[in-house]
Design a protein that fits this description.
Keywords (chains A, B): Aminotransferase, Pyridoxal phosphate, Transferase
Oligomer: homodimer
Structural class of chain A: alpha/beta
Family (chains A, B): Belongs to the DegT/DnrJ/EryC1 family.
CATH architecture of the largest domain in chain A: 3-Layer(aba) Sandwich
Strand content of chain A: 15-25%
Strand order of the largest sheet of chain A: 1-11-10-7-6-2-3
Radius of gyration of chain A: 21 Å
Protein name (chains A, B): LegC family aminotransferase
GO molecular function (chains A, B): transaminase activity
Order of helices and strands of chain A: HHEHEHEHEEEHEEEEEHHEEEHEHEH
Number of helices of chain A: 11
Shape of chain A: globular
CATH superfamily of the largest domain in chain A: Type I PLP-dependent aspartate aminotransferase-like (Major domain)
CATH topology of the largest domain in chain A: Aspartate Aminotransferase, domain 2
Pfam family, one (chains A, B): DegT_DnrJ_EryC1
Chain lengths: 370, 370
């Protein structure tokens, strides 16, 4: 079976993990957690990183720190993994869906501007939905399959509408926009190190921010909100146990050492796919949008025309043949828990759902025919 | 430094963890997760186990599945780790504190009965607080430092008051009550495998239940509520990413193989402590309550009389000397987030807080002078 994306361990993974076991430091304290966070800062250029237990937890923390509370609406794209919306729901908020761009597959600045003009207003400095009277608390953009959205335009729009921008960068570690790593434009951003990501900690995530106050809050909130004391157990708020175990961070340190090589291999694979599909009729290979140097986390082919049965025929044939392929996630506004969520016109996302197929994208595939 | 409780790896930990890395199965699917769950079922005799990312997540799942929702009160003890109350808060509930028993250190059946008679009534089959008019949604008892509470009496009281009993068994893996493993009396129970527990997965937990419907719900809810399909990503509710990575489960399988030996060693250590303290004036060693065969997770000494300065003098002297000791957790009703929570008389917990000291309890200490 050719996997969609399988992890690759051939650096110091075993050495670091063994060190944890040998020293007994496997749990929620230990040097690999600190080293992992430092390595993330060094690689992304974002000044603070808090390692957490997974990408969903990272998103939850971003939304809590952005101040999302009961009955807030949070603008996000319908084409995303369920965690984006789940994290909004954990805060008591409701997603408000805005369409994606056909050139990035992520939140579309034009659609966002149109939607805000149509439905939002600023009341006493706060962005509100004119129809529902609910506060709009934030915008979450997601870098779909690793490709960066138009961050400069989205950030400018958010600033104009008094909305904090959060980057769901779960899939975009190793992806840059206008020369800077994704995660730089948002007030906060969330990364994932799940087993299917470009590098993995087994399960893991991180909250990235350039804001030192938010970084301190992220660390405090995710480590049970315990106050420092030689022996007393005092907690000054309802905290979360979102700590990444040292065992998983050890794996992550070894993986981050490989990240530049992995990005290079995945870009090589994408180039080869692009060439292979160049002259194929009715299908195109999706290439990185302008301004973005992508990690090509999951490669995408698109049918020229929406055709669910053609899509399913390809999915059936490839999976039957041991080549793992997948459609896009079911669009969020079509899931039962978000059936009542407000949304604008979502025709780009709806078309993509009928046209999009992810094809095998493991790092090794980019190396194997060098 | 003599730790309070350090993990011990000398079985198949390396072998199983290396197998994960060698095969690439480190993440949220893999055979060690299934094996870990089966081993928990075999050891505890409770029919279903869902491995999750940590004990806090396990508690959260127990409370969600018990139906706790916005503005419910949940009865629990003030002498516990902050996670018990945090999990209640995640559901929108509020703790309602009832005192602990001096013989178990956990929730006191007499205090619970008094408190329910004083403040609760059954309205249309639902237990309500007469004063606050809020629903009382559940009772959570915690097996403090591994010692079982009086589960038969608590379960009978809960049944009479239409209250689901949840066991916070985070500390009591390996502890039995009336011949059955803790976790058997609650509708649901939560176990922790944090690094300081009797066995560890780095970070991890499990939801245990004898109810097959709740077990299916626990698995579904903790694995993003995804519906099974060959390739579609459909989620029928707001799910959680509480999956234990295979890497951590592998460590856990090796640890569970050692559990009976670890319990035996810890019981030997407790016996030795009991003898050592037998003739010491003004201090007693806490021994397991009647009906309980305890794992003696953290050993406890108690000053005969509440005296915070005597307690702190011992804490200072021992920690200065490299012998790690700790007081009880700050009582939950004294923490800022729960300052407004309802509570009855808590004089036993308050006395214990001034008298209780945890002393070094690692497995190796029970073996070293056999």
């Amino acid at each position: 079976m050719a996997a969609l994306h399988e992890p690759l361990f051939r650096g110091h993974e075993w050495e670091y993990v063994k060190e944890c076991i040998d020293t007994g430091w496997v749990s929620t304290a230990g040097k690999f957690v600190d080293r992992f966070e430092t390595m993330l800062v060094d690689y992304t250029g974002i000044s603070h990183a808090s390692a957490v237990v997974n990408g969903t937890a990272a998103l939850h923390v971003c939304l809590m720190l952005a101040g999302i509370r009961q009955n807030d609406e949070v603008i996000c794209q319908p084409l995303t993994f369920a965690a984006t919306c789940a994290a909004i729901a954990y805060c008591g908020g409701l997603p408000h869906f805005v369409d994606v761009s056909p050139t990035t597959l992520g939140l579309c600045p034009d659609a966002l501007e149109t939607r805000l003009n149509e439905t939002a207003e600023i009341v006493d400095g706060v962005c509100q939905n004119r129809l529902t009277r609910r506060r709009i608390g934030a915008v979450v953009c997601m870098h779909t399959y690793g490709h960066a959205v138009e961050l400069d335009r989205l950030a400018a729009l958010c600033a104009r509408w008094h909305l904090p921008l959060i980057e769901d960068a779960a899939e975009s570690l190793g992806s840059f926009y206008q020369g800077r790593h994704t995660g730089h434009w948002g007030v906060l951003s969330a990364v994932s190190f799940n087993g299917n990501k470009i590098v993995t900690t087994g399960g893991g995530g991180a909250v990235l921010t350039n804001d030192p106050y938010l970084a301190r809050q992220a660390k405090h909130l995710t480590t049970t909100a315990k106050l420092p004391h030689r022996w007393e157990f005092e907690h000054d708020r309802v905290g979360y146990n979102y700590r990444l175990p040292n065992l998983n961070a050890a794996l992550g340190c070894a993986q981050l050492e490989q990240l530049p090589n992995y990005v290079a291999a995945k870009r090589t694979l994408a180039q080869r796919y692009a060439e292979a599909f160049r002259d194929v009729a009715n299908v195109s290979f999706f290439t990185e949008p302008s301004g973005c140097c992508s990690n090509y986390w999951l490669n995408v082919i698109l049918l020229d025309h929406p055709d669910r049965s053609a899509r399913d025929a390809i999915l059936t044939a490839t999976n039957d043949a041991g080549l793992m392929t997948r459609p896009a996630w079911q669009l969020m506004h079509r899931l039962a828990p978000y059936a009542l969520a407000p949304h604008g016109d979502l025709k780009v996302a709806e078309s993509l759902y009928d046209r999009l197929i992810n094809i095998p994208s493991s790092v090794t595939l980019g190396e194997s025919h060098g």
